[in-house]
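hey so i finaly got around to running the thing on histidine kinase from Novosphingobium cyanobacteriorum. pasting the sequence first so u can double check i didnt mess up the copy paste, my clipboard has been acting weird all day
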Amino acid sequence: MSKYREDQAHRAYDDSPDRFRAHHPDDAFDGASGVLFEQAMAQTRMAICLCDPHQPDAPIVFANRAFRALSGYEEAEIVGRNCRFMQGPGTDRAAVRRIRAALEQEEVIVVELLNYRKDGSTFWNALHLGPIYDAEGRLLYFFGSQWDVSDVRVARAEERHARELARELSHRMKNMFAVIGGIVNFTGRTRGIEAEAREINERIQALGRAYETTLDEASSGFIEVGQAIRSVLAPYDPQGTRIHFEGNGLRSDFSAVSVLGLSLHELAANAVKHGALSRQTGQVTVRWARNGAPGAPTIVINWIEQGGPPVDLQHLLLESRDPGIVDRMLAMARGNIMREWRKDGLWATLRLPLREDVA
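ok and heres what it spat out for the 3d tokens, dont ask me to read them lol
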């Protein structure tokens, strides 16, 4: 006897209801527990049936209320028939063959297949089949439970479609950014402004990195802030040792990608040219969190540079009188940036509104 059979034999259904005992009159049977078993089987919301493998074509000998509700058939239309009566033209033949093989080998199988109700409507059935043995290891019945997973299948299909759409969108956006970059480079060369064109292209590339990693979430209307931050800043720390990230699983409105991406790109580019990342010992810490009152939440991002060259306060104070691109972008998004120049680097705090329903 197989190990599975031995295990099943120890928990055999000796308390099977009276309607099944006629098939196995020698089985030990406790009438009281049999009644409880039958009531439990009948009242459970899981659709359940039992088939008798000792009769020709292994007919159904019991189908509970949930099975009848799921299939649309009455008990008299179910009992005595093989369960294949719920199959139809759309039922996968390969799945049916797997079921047949499992029954022949007395194995447990779980398979999803398309079934048909009495009214002709279809549903996806997560079918669980397995043998039931008596205390001696003899096969008594095949147990079948059915679960309507049509909604689950639809959700899977929608998720799969969303992933495919995201991949296609990613491909198209890469092409779009590449075309824009090519136009900018061409214009820069023909007009003798290569340096300006290169600076614009760096911003375009930063936008592309921010969007590419958040496209999977686009259909839901929000992004994971940390994912966008890491993607934008990755090129400025190829070894992953100089920019440190500290944040939670904060999510934000998808429209925040552009502002976040370009703002952090500008800060990183400045750090590479003049700040902490211009020195081998320099470090940058980026922290992000949710802040603000319940009715007016905000994204708060702290940019902390350490180990950079001494700060030329006079130059920075003069430069700060003319707000740069970061200030203008944040202002248009109803956000702001506060800067504090410390001895070895810039400390900046960026704030952006956060939609309450995706906080």
